[in-house]
Amino acid sequence: MILRRLLTPLGLAFWAMIVAIPFYLVVTMSLKSPADLQYGPLKWPETLKFSNYWTAWQQANMGQAFLNSILITGVSLILIVVFSSMAAYPLARRTDRWSGALYVYFLAGIMVPFQLAMIPLYKLLNGLNLIGKYPGAIAVYIATGIPFAVFLYVSFFKTVPRELEESAQIDGSGPFRTFWKILFPLVKPITSTVVIIKSLFIWNDFFIPLLFLQSKAMRNIPLSLYSFTSEYTNNWVLIFAAVVIGSLPLIALFLALQKHFIQGIASGAVKG
Amino acid sequence: MRRTGIDGVFLLPAFLVFTIFLAYPVLSSFYYSMTDWNGLSPTIDFIGLDNFRKLAHDKDVWKGLQNTLVIALLVTVLQNVIGLLLALGLQKTGFVQRLLRAWYLLPALLSPLAIGYIWSYMYNPQFGVINTILEFVGLSGWAQDWLGDRRLAIYSVIAANLWQWVAFSMIIYVAGLQSIPRDMYEAADIDGAGAFSRFKNITFPLVAPAFTVNIVVTMIVGLKLFDIIFIMTNGGPGGSTENLAVMLYRQAFALNRMGYANAIALLMFAMILVFSLVQIALLRRREVEY
Amino acid sequence: MRKRTKAGFAALCLTLSLLVAGCGGGGQNAPEAGASGSSSQPKEENVTLKLYLVNNANLNLEEVHRKFEEKYPNIRLDYEGAPVDQFETVIKTKLASGDAPDIFTVFAGTKKDPFVNAGYLLDLSDEPWVQRLTPGAIRSASKDGKIYGLPRSQNVIGVIYNKKIFKDLGLAVPTDWQSFLDAAHKIKDSGVTPIGLGLKDQFVTQLIPYAMAASAIYRDNPEFDGQMAEGKATFVGSAWEKMMADYVDLEKQGLTNKGVLGTANDQVLQLMSSGKVAMTVSLNAVVPALKAANPELEWGMFPLPYVEAGEPIWVSTGPALFAGAYAKTKHPEAVRKYLDFVASPESMKTILDATQSFSIVDDVTPSLDAALMEIEPSLKVGTYAFLDQNWPAAVQPQMFVGIQGVFAGGSVNDMLAKMDEAYKEGNK
B284 falls in which pLDDT band (50, 70, 90)? Predict the structure, then answer.
């Protein structure tokens, strides 16, 4: 019995440590001098070189990268939420064959390997004159974000009783007003789920910006890490400094919104 | 008529963006699976089903398929078992519990690039963190070349992935557990049910919806796993961590076999589709309403 | 009714606004904007050249570009660097989609051939700088007698070693394989890891075999590649079998660091700069990184002596290309001006000094580190190009995977058979 009582805290403490060690590594590495690296990754830095952060910030032009990341992530998220919640509503309400087929059509989007769609996608964006422009990358993020969001919204709308909309309609509210004023606030948990999961993906993605945005002025945070790599060698100290800087906004946001974060992920999935 | 019109307006934006920027490019890339295109040349020859015939006899593809399944299975099982165990430990709503939940979620905020860089220093055989710690606690015999050993590398990659994402599964289970009505446990206590039987008869059936979501999502993610493998091992050493996603990328862009790579992609898509549909059908049946 | 239509229209606009915003040419991106100094030369048209090159922080291109834009104020350079891991993916996607940069990195040897065959590369044979190139550089930049890229530097594979460790142990630079192994054993007995090997990075896997093959195959049979192309020779049954056995043996005898497959090249360099590893077989290009990590240590470089005592040692060297040009570029004149400027002795020296590599033109002498000066005389004995420069493009990636496989316990024969297969398929 005593053993069992101890087992839980010990297990939890153990995992807490497993999470902590790599973070210790990132932070200490980011404060070392290049010469310090030779003493192995666990060694505490000889002198704490905070100037690494400034160097990384300047060399990789991270201020601009921040603005780009915020713009791209923000606009993509808003449009994913708007488009997906709207589409999910009729899909959840109708039972005919068309809506079933359409639902499966969206769902299949979760399952496709994306890597190879790149060449046709590039041709398409090039034809639309969207290469090297924010809307191009944002459109791709929206398209890849829709399937999962639709999946979550549909399952949640199914649990919302029809009576709500019907009484609203009796009161003379049109379908769009009903949707935005009554239904959309009800699915807030799913919206936070979508926002959380997709913001992690979009903020941290480097492939789509690399391919479709290209210019240095449009780089996002993950791409700026590449400023410190060369053909044969990498500047690890600055890479880790940039990792710390680039992760801070998400960590700060996460700590601030922790409760919603956790509720969001959870409610979205469980009720679905 | 009226209904259809409104439905159409609701559906149109998502339908258009999804069709134009995802469905169309993916479908048109499947066309290349029936060509011998090298990814560069302006001429593309249609060769029918040759790529698929070659696929059936390609030992590397079978190995890649095997790796894909091993990775997907282990990612699914480990993430759910450990996620559920952590959730059971943290289902109460105290300060410490909240703190730990947040702490466990931190790795999910890092980019795959950062994860790759960090873990290559964790796993380094000579001065890596893991071997250094093992030596420090007197277990130097356990030290390994974590990413260099052909048998171990795949598990090392899976472990890093677990480190990053296990808390996601945990959170979903925590929510599932917290939604279980207290009185059910009280009733079970009166009946004198043991801890295991309590878990089996009450807890598990009621977290089933969380279970369904977790299993399906982790499995699809596991089958498609790309970033972390690409950055940590690029399929190596000697192809031992190369799953289909990494393989088709290498075939397409390093080996100049764009047509063949698309055939592999189609195989992968078909496999994920079948797995997901079967799983959803099986798991949905188990769920309990209360 | 009316409300509904309005909202529906708004939703549609949201979708379309994505496209429209794109077509309107959004914010930051205005590549065609003219350079500021253009007013002084009203006759010359303002052009912007798009450059897409592999990221190389050590190249000091900023310096070259600054001077170029001073000299040609009407030509603006829009330069983007790409991470080496993803460069090929992006450039192939761009070319296949018809959105090519004017100037982009081209890899030396046969790796560029698929690009030439597809008609993407501009013929540069008539450029003035071609006359100044060394024969090896010309070979690596040409296909069927035409030049498709501007070479940048001559890279050399050799043994980079810690001079102090050699001196303390009284070791001389070894000149045959047995004495190389003896030296390594002595270093090992002194408690230092003799050879650093970071096979986790795929490009490292090839360095030792290339260095070996220069002496073991090509010194006595320079026609080997030609025989392979004709199908008269294969990897299986060639000196490759012995080379690979000796290569793996370095690890089996405990002469390398532990866990070669899990160690990355950067980590080997870190071990070397802390004096824990005495040598590594690598490229001249890593010397600046070693210097930066620990300025107090002194490095030397000698050719890998994979020969019997008394035999001449050949060195594996390969020209690296700077870039080629897009065949359908809209600004061929500006492209030529740019390449010509990079090829000028002044720019070349800037680049070579920064990368610490040997010259590929006969009128530039870079200021090189002592370590590189040490290996320079050996280049006159005999050299052979990096092997992949003469192979079909798919052989090298197959070799990377194969060598890792052999170190992980796979069979040499399997590896060589797969390379033969890739060779045959690519040679069709």
Answer: low
Contact C404 B149 (CB under 8 A): no
Instruction: State whether residue C381 sits within 8 Å of chain B by CB.
Output: no
Contacts of residue C200, defined as CB under 8 A and 6 or more positions apart, other chains included, come to B120, B147, B148, B233, B236, B237, C261, C262, C263, C264, C265
Q: Angle at which helices A2-30 and B59-89 pack, to 10 degrees?
A: 120
Is the peptide bond between B237 and the residue preceding it cis, with omega within 30 degrees of 0? Answer: yes
Residues in chain A: 272
Question: B14: helix, coil or strand?
Answer: helix
Beta carbons of B109 and A250 less than 8 Å apart = yes
Residue A32 and residue A45 in contact, taking contact as beta carbons nearer than 8 Å: yes
Q: Does B17 touch chain C (CB under 8 A)?
A: yes
**What is the rounded CA–CA span in Å between residue C341 and residue C145?**
24
pLDDT band at B172 (very low <50, low <70, confident <90, very high): confident
Q: Do A200 and B209 touch (CB under 8 A)?
A: no
The tens digit of pLDDT for each residue in B98-154 reads: 889 889 989 998 988 888 889 988 998 888 899 989 988 988 888 888 998 989 999
Alpha-carbon torsion, ordered A207, A210, A213, A215, to 10 deg: 160
Q: How many CB pairs under 8 A join A and C?
A: 133
pLDDT along chain C (428 residues), means of 10: 42 44 38 41 76 81 91 92 84 89 92 90 94 90 93 94 95 96 96 95 94 95 93 95 96 93 90 92 90 88 95 93 93 94 93 89 88 90 90 90 92 95 85
**Residue C334 DSSP symbol:** H
A262 to chain B: nearest residue by CA?
A: B171
Q: What is the CA radius of gyration of chain A?
A: 23
pLDDT digits (tens, 9 = 90+) for B38-55: 888 888 889 989 999 999
Neighbour-count burial for B57-79, b at 16+ CB within 10 Å, e otherwise? ebeebeebbebbbbbbebbbebb
- Chain C residues touching residue B150 (CB < 8 angstroms): 261, 405, 408-410
Bridge partner residues of C80 (DSSP): C52
In a domain, B91, yes or no: yes
Report the neighbours of C using a cutoff of 3 or more CB pairs below 8 angstroms. Answer: A, B
State whether ipTM is beyond 0.85.
Answer: yes
The full set of domains in chain A, from first to last, is 66-271 (1.10.3720.10)
Q: With 0-12 CB in 10 A as exposed, 13-18 as middle and 19+ as buried, what is B154?
A: buried
| CA-based torsion, A174, A180, A181, A187: positive or negative | positive
pLDDT at A255: 79
Domain assignment of residue B49, yes or no: no
Residue C360 three-state SS: coil
CATH of residue B206: 1.10.3720.10
CB-closest option in A83, A129, A211 to C90: A211
Is B10 a domain residue? no
Chains touching chain B at 3 or more Cβ pairs under 8 angstroms?
A, C
Residue B222 resides in a domain: yes
Q: Give the residue numbers spanning the domain of B125.
A: 58-289
Yes or no, beta carbons of A231 and C285 under 8 Å apart? yes
Closest CA to C237 of C412, C421, C427, C424: C412
Structurally, chain B folds into a number of domains equal to 1
Residue C176: alpha-carbon gap to chain centroid = 28
Cβ neighbours around C62 below 10 Å, total: 10
> Minimal Cα distance from B9: which residue of C?
C8
Of the candidates B268, B178, B119, C425, which has an alpha carbon nearest to the alpha carbon of residue A21? B119
Is the sign of the CA dihedral A233, A236, A241, A246 positive or negative?
A: positive
Give B146 to chain C, closest Cα distance, Å. 7
Q: Which residues does B187 contact at the CB level (< 8 Å), separation at least 6?
A: none
Residue type, B152: L
Q: Nearest Cβ partner of A232 from C19, C273, C285?
A: C285
